[in-house]
Hints:
By secondary structure, this protein is mainly alpha-helical. Among the domains are: 116-251, Cullin Repeats (5 helical Cullin repeat like); 556-621, no CATH class; 634-735, Cullin, Chain C, Domain 2 (Ribosomal Protein S5, domain 2, 2-Layer Sandwich); 739-817, Arc Repressor Mutant, subunit A (Orthogonal Bundle), CATH 1.10.10.10. The strands form 4 sheets. Strands 2-1-3 form a 3-stranded mixed β-sheet, with helices on one face. Helix 1 packs parallel to helix 2 and helix 17 (362-375) runs antiparallel to helix 18. Pathway: Protein modification; protein ubiquitination.
Amino acid sequence: LNSWRPVSSRWRYELAYEATALRRRRKVFAKRLPPLTASKHPGSKLAKHLNHTAISQSANLIMAEDTRQDKRASFSITEHSANGMARTSAVASGKTGTSKKLVIKNFKDRPKLAENYTEDTWLKLRDAVGAIQNSTSIKYNLEELYQAVENLCSYKVSPTLYKQLRQVCEDHVQAQIHQFREYPFLCSLDNLSFLKRMNRCWQDHCRQTIMIRSIFLFLDRTYVLQNSLLPSIWDTGLELFRTHIVSDSAVQKRTVEGILEQIELERNGETVDRSLLRSLLGMLSDLQVYKDSFEERFLTETNRLYAAEGQRLMQERDVPEYLHHVARRLEEENDRIVSYLDQSTQKPLISCVEKQLLGEHMTAILQKGLSTLLDENRVTELTLLYQLFSKVKGGLPTLLQFWRDYIKSFGGEIVCTPEKDKDMVQDLLDFKDKMDNVAQSCFARNESFINAMKEAFETFINKRPNKPLILMRFSLLRAGNKEATEEELERILDKIMIIFRFIHGKDVFEAFYKKDLAKRLLVGKSASVDAEKSMLSKLKHECGAAFTSKLEGMFKDMELSKDIMIQFKQYIQNQSEPSNIELTVNILTMGYWPSYTPMEVHLPTEMVKLQEVFKLFYLGKHSGRKLQWQPTLGHAVLKAEFKEGKKELQVSLFQTLVLLMFNEGEEFSMEEIRAATGIEEGELKRTLQSLACGKARVLNKNPRGKDVEDGDRFNFNNDFKHKLFRIKINQIQMKETVEEQVSTTERVFQDRQYQIDAAVVRIMKMRKTLSHNLLVSELYNQLKFPVKPGDLKKRIESLIDRDYMERDKETPNQYHYVA
């Protein structure tokens, strides 16, 4: 037994009980005690092991007598059952011959107890219990006390013994309440001292109950276990402590108030004894009064505290600081749950904190700080905001709405502010990148937030019809981007296509993009032909082949023109009178390119001669075709001499005509220049302004000024200086006039009218008869650009007037197709 003896006294006495059972097995082999494996007390597995060991040892002890006489003798065991039958079985055989038999018989009847044994034994046990309760030494051997309890239980004294033990324990607990009820004591102690006294009383009670149960373990594991209505000795101790101490109103109130005071001190930043709180709250939980006596009041106080704190801090602190405070408070409360609160409190406590610090202030937090967080790109705080709002009922839908409104507002400001038109496309790309990063990094790639962002972009980007499309048409592929790598250009194009998807009325983009692409190709201002083709491929993938067919035709024309010019140069070299002017001509198919207003200008004789030579060359190869010269996008390189030295000027054809006049004279008026060149007045003013009022002023204007007026006179600036040898002055060709924008827009709307008419006739031809509402619905499904119902009604009326369809005579809203 010494090798099995554990350190704890509680387990030591259980082993003593098992050892007693072993001794009883030696005396009464046939008698079987109740099985211990079903016991609800500790040590049952060990009891099962010892029970089995006792039986085997009792047989071995008896058999040992015979085996000592003759170790080689064979023997058998005769088992006697209760009905008197015996069965003999051979166990071992050392050699042939007679075998000795071992017969095991029942002992005689159980001896009777002495007359005063019960009373004397109870007095011993009561003294031992009193010594435990008073923390004094026990007079008797603990094994002797355990054996006494077993003896009483064996002789059917268990009910009386159980009642007597309960009464003794109850008397002791009732006496303990006086230390908490005495008025001077109750008033003299502060709450912390009171809690310590209560905890000491509880700890003493638990220790005493465990010790008493160890002595009366046999009673607890036989009689009490067999009577399901009786509480165990441990449960009885808890019941008595709950009934006579904790259920006392004054004691319970003081205890709960003390615990709440300690928790409030900790919430205010002070250090408290967490082990004391853990012990006392564990006491309330063990006594099954935690929820009613403590939790309800604790949650009420928590609710009050955080409601006041939320109101105060929302006014005192900015949103990032407030969010970090809320996160810290939640972390603290979770730590309290782990440290000393019952786990059942976790859900209502955290819900209370989230409701008072977040739920009640969701709108105020977002109104006060969301815009600032997004403007400053505060990723950490935005992530925290999302995490906190995801815990509150209705938090994410509220955040989603404010997120959508912010994007609409900020984006609308970019699109609808004319002063920002210059940087609109880049601002939109940067804003989209920023919002994408927030959705990915801060909002956990929430699908709802990503969809809301797309919806918001589509809303605000179409607030100013066609303007983003007009600005996007440049596609950031002008000469200023020639230093960009192919990877950078490809990334820029991908971003542009993302914005492009949000825009309605892509036909406007097509019109402006085609006009600017023509300028870039003809003037040589494109950053990269490969990048232009890549953009074209993306547009084709996004909008279909019909959208880009004309744009692809423009590239084909440019490639064919290169081949034609190679042949033309060979043709020129074979001429008897070669020219000192190098001519490059681009042959454009009229259906592919934007329409340009023909302008008759007075070209120099050498230029006219070259044009005639090219005309003969081209028509000789392609009979039946007609050539129409377009000087608008022509450009040239002039060699000029200044005091500083020779320079090369890269200028437009109109600038060329103006500058060549100063080979014939020193000074000319605007009217003289217009008469000599034949350039239209508005275009001439722009040309003269670029030569005399820009950065490279190769002409002087008199009087000085930024604008060109009638009567102004111009002379050659011989003192012109520039650090470069070749100077570009033809940027004016890339600039778009207001008239060009208006003209392109009007042409797009005119094309839209044709598309509406064609769609109406197509639908009516198929349906024959249709109501107005159904016809409008079908039109919205087929048309790829935004259109107002009023505009549709006008086109329908126009078709009725032109006898393509007619109204029903009885139902005016019904239309019939007219074949």
